[in-house]
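Title: Comparing notes on inverse folding

I've been comparing how different people in this forum approach sequence design from structure. To keep things fair, I'm posting one structure and asking everyone to reply with a full sequence. Here's the target:
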């Protein structure tokens, strides 16, 4: 009677010895397994694997055809059989063996890659690209792949990229007349759809760091028309600028660091800005709490903000703050904490310039509202990247508001 456990141990030992370069030990373990159970599927599979390494696909195929008869649900047997059939140039049988693997393990990466490669050999580039694309999408971001697989993955990426370029050319030829016909129509969503299809842009999903409120639309920058009350703030821009310059004239002591994580809190992302006035702020309201001295010093700014639809939630909102970023200071990738809020930015002209990037959209600093809870930041805690690139010194008036109902209703 065959001792299954012992045979598995012998085969595992043979494979480990072979992988670590101890060929003589591997041979000894395999010979012992063959002596005890010469027709065991694991023994046949290991012997066949060694034949494949020795460029003997015919001998490997013979052993593996016997092995799959006694163990038809073992995907490794079918996968090695497919490899031997590739060497024998029997594509129809290879495809059948790969389909057997995928029927047992639909997410078997090696089988998906080999099937796509087989489609390439058969002159079916679109089928190959589709297969490669599925396989690549299964690999987690940042995963470290074995060195032996890197050439295969690089070929997969090339095949997908080539197919995407050909698809783009095909679509653009057929869209040319439509683009002319609808030249004045807002096509941003369609263009984003097309860019995502062609893998030119990733898909960003909302992942606030604290509270996710479902079924709100994933919009990076809101349409300016959604915020008619910005007009009154823009009309007061000279007065707002003058009051901020008056505050700044008293020196850095007037500002507090925007980033102020206590000791012991993991904050590697904010290490350079933590407790630093390189990104300083002057609060008017902070999470619903008024800074009375600051309000008294900036009366015209406060008057301009009367039209601002405040988010009146005790200990959460509203917040309005002058935000000042020193020259050549970059805010790292980050995200907001609550998906219910939008961030409204009022650029104070004449005090620096910057660009704000959220997801795939990048805008010059101006007056707009954006969803800071969108963004992939670091360690997949976010989805839309937020990046400020200032020059030289930058100042803006920032505030949090609840998302407009007109926007929420489109979720």
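Reply #1:
Here's my take.
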């Amino acid at each position: 009677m065959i001792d299954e456990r012992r045979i598995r141990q012998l085969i595992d030992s043979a494979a480990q010895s072979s992988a670590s370069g101890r060929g003589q030990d591997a041979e000894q373990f395999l010979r012992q397994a063959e002596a005890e159970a010469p027709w065991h599927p694991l023994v046949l599979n290991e012997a066949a694997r060694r034949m494949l390494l020795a460029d003997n696909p015919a001998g490997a195929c013979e052993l593996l055809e016997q092995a799959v008869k006694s163990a038809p649900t073992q995907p490794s047997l079918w996968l090695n059989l497919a490899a031997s059939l590739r060497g024998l140039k029997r594509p129809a049988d290879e495809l059948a063996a790969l389909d057997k693997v995928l029927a047992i393990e639909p997410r078997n990466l090696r089988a998906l890659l080999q099937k796509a490669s087989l489609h390439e050999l058969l002159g079916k580039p679109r089928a190959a690209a589709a297969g490669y694309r599925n396989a690549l999408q299964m690999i987690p971001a940042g995963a470290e792949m074995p060195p032996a697989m890197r050439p295969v993955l690089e070929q997969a990426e090339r095949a997908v990229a080539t197919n995407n370029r050909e698809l783009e050319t095909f679509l653009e030829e057929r869209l040319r007349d439509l683009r002319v016909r609808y030249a004045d129509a807002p096509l941003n969503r369609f263009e984003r759809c097309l860019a995502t299809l062609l893998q030119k842009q990733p898909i960003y999903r909302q992942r606030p760091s604290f509270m996710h409120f479902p079924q709100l639309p994933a919009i990076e920058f809101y349409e300016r028309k959604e915020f008619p009350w910005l007009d009154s703030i823009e009309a007061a821009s000279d007065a707002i600028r003058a009051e901020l310059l008056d505050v700044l004239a008293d020196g850095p002591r007037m500002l507090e660091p925007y980033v102020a994580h206590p000791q012991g809190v993991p904050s590697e992302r904010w290490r350079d800005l933590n407790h630093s006035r390189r990104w300083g702020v002057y609060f008017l309201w902070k999470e619903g709490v008024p800074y009375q001295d600051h309000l008294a010093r900036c009366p015209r700014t406060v008057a301009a903000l009367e039209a601002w639809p405040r988010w009146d939630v005790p200990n959460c909102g509203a917040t309005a703050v002058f935000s000042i970023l020193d020259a050549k200071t970059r805010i790292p990738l980050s995200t907001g904490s609550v998906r219910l809020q939008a961030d409204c930015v009022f650029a104070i002209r004449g005090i620096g310039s910057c660009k704000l990037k959220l997801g795939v959209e990048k805008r010059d600093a101006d007056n707009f509202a954006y969803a800071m809870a969108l963004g992939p930041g670091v360690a997949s805690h976010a989805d839309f990247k937020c990046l400020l690139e200032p020059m030289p010194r930058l100042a803006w008036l920032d505030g949090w508001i609840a998302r407009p109902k007109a926007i929420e209703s489109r979720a």
